UniProtKB/TrEMBL annotation:
One Pfam short name: FMO-like
Name this polypeptide is given: Baeyer-Villiger monooxygenase
Taxonomic superkingdom: Bacteria
Keywords: FAD, Flavoprotein, Monooxygenase, NADP, Oxidoreductase
Organism: Streptomyces mobaraensis
Length: 506
């Protein structure tokens, strides 16, 4: 028999654990967190590649309700972030709610019983409300390359690093120049015999203002919480001031480009290599990367930069789109994730018997980034158009947790077997507004092809405003944007022929 819960949360990264904490703080204890892996942590569990670290300052990349005065560096590495999430799990008593090794195979809305039916790897569940917190950086994207299956050496994605492979002394090819690749390259360069970087598009890279946080600072942050809050506030405020350049006046990013070019000139003296590493699009169009050791690593004698994407694999030979051929013993992909076509969308079926993937076939869209038309009592954490290009996603997550809390309060006030489903008109109006604002942003006008855009060139990923604005628009649920569904009344006698029993929409 299926276990019934008030709320089922899918995923145990920052979004899922944040939702669990907020549920407990709201007095909701009848919930489970369904996790497909055998441990919590989301992307910070999966990404264990050499050099893995966050590009958002530690004191901003943490929950406001769970500050950590003991961050060791300005930009913390993967082990410290994962340890932080484990500590949050224990501090807020989340272990009893975890259901590990419980990948959600399907979630289907039952209109008659007014609840979700979930089939998982560990059994069946039913839930009044489902919170999808799988996150956009959870399913790696591997390009389809002819001959890849016949490559004789190890092949793996940065988010599925094979620690059983010893790269020392080997010829290693890295495909991609995103946030993971620029950390992997300097981490493995000293130990491999040859490193070839396949660069389809160069990245804009700024200096990384990283340093060890002193013992005095940590003591002060622990003993005087106001200093910790001031540090977080300063980091937040600086990034809020930058938003206008990204979303309204990309021409103002010229100064930042100059800083990035100077950073490149200082590290790379070879004009030919420097030319290959210089982007031809506006800075910010793709995510700006931070590194002090990426460029120096590319200048080492055992590193080659192929300014072209990998096009074909012939045995141990790798052939670039420009015809360059190199030999490799191991192949590492830093090619990103399935952001605009999240696999979970194929597994969720709404009130009309249509999957979320089918609903989103023309582009992802959700009211306030959180609810979708046709999917009652389903909320997303880090949903469509909630991504950031310059600040901490934890700020966006906490805003959506406010919305989740008010959503549950509204259901309690309405009483009975009730559901709320976003009106198509409200979703469409919200999405039109987002896309209209997106037209002038650097992500749409900067002249690049990025993971912010879907296959049709629509930006269904980024948020075109400040985090403070998003906090305001998700503070409360506006019932005018929703239809209320109630459990169908079951007559004591047989209904007349031709009359069906459906949920009443008001």
């Amino acid at each position: 028999m299926a276990e019934h819960v008030r709320v089922a949360v899918i995923g145990s990264g920052f979004g899922g654990l944040g939702a669990a904490v907020r549920l407990r703080r709201e007095g909701v204890t009848d919930f489970v967190v369904l996790e497909r892996a055998d441990a919590i942590g989301g992307t910070w569990r999966d990404n264990t590649y050499p050099g893995c670290a966050c590009d958002v300052p530690s004191h901003l990349y943490s929950f406001s309700f769970a500050p950590n005065p003991e961050w060791p560096r300005n930009f913390s590495g993967q082990p410290h972030i994962r340890a932080y999430l484990e500590r949050v799990t224990d501090t807020y008593g989340l272990r009893p709610h975890l259901r590990l090794n419980s990948e959600v195979r399907s979630a289907r809305w039952d209109a008659e019983r007014m609840r979700w039916e979930l089939d998982t790897a560990s059994g069946a569940y039913t839930a009044d409300v489902v919170v999808s917190a799988t996150g956009p950086l959870s399913d790696p994207r591997l390009p389809e390359i002819p001959g890849l299956d016949a490559f004789p050496g190890p092949v793996f994605h940065s988010a599925r690093w094979d620690h059983g492979v010893d790269l020392r002394g080997k010829r290693v090819a890295v495909v991609g120049t995103g946030a993971s690749a620029i950390q992997i390259v300097p981490a493995i360069q000293p130990e491999v015999s040859r490193l070839t970087l396949f660069q389809r598009t160069p990245a804009w890279v700024l200096p990384r203002a990283d340093r060890r946080i002193t013992g005095v600072e940590r003591w002060l942050h622990g003993k005087v919480p106001a200093t910790r809050a001031a540090r977080r506030g300063m980091l937040w405020g600086i990034r809020e001031l930058q938003v206008g350049a990204f979303t309204k006046r990309p021409d103002r990013l010229g100064f930042v480009e100059a800083v990035a070019k100077a950073h490149l000139r200082r590290a790379v003296k070879d004009p030919e290599l420097r030319a290959r590493l210089t982007p031809d699009y506006r800075i910010g169009c793709k995510r700006i990367l931070l590194s002090n050791d990426y460029y120096p690593a590319l200048t080492r004698a055992n590193v080659d930069v192929v300014a072209s994407g990998l096009a074909e694999v012939r045995g141990s030979g790798l052939v670039a789109a420009d015809g360059t051929r190199v030999e490799a013993d191991a192949l590492v992909f830093g090619t990103g994730f399935r952001v605009t076509d999240m696999p979970i969308a194929r597994r969720i079926t709404g009130a009309d018997g249509v999957t979320l993937a089918e609903t989103w076939k023309d582009g992802m869209a959700a009211l306030r980034g959180t609810t979708a038309a046709g999917f009652p009592n389903l909320l997303f954490i880090i949903g469509p158009n909630t991504g950031l290009g310059n600040s901490s996603m934890i700020l966006m997550i906490e805003s959506q947790l406010n919305y989740l809390a008010d959503f549950l309060r509204q259901l309690d006030v309405l009483g009975g077997r009730t559901a709320l489903v976003a009106r198509p008109s409200a979703v469409n109006a919200w999405n039109r507004g987002i896309q209209r604002r997106m037209e002038r942003t650097v992500w749409n006008t900067g002249g690049c092809d990025s993971w912010y855009l879907d296959s049709e060139g629509r930006n269904t990923t980024a948020w075109p405003g400040t985090t403070a604005e998003f906090r305001r628009v998700t503070r409360r649920v506006d019932l005018q944007e929703y239809q209320m569904l109630r459990e169908p009344r079951r007559p004591r006698t047989q209904a007349p022929a031709g009359l069906g029993e459906g949920a009443v929409a008001r």
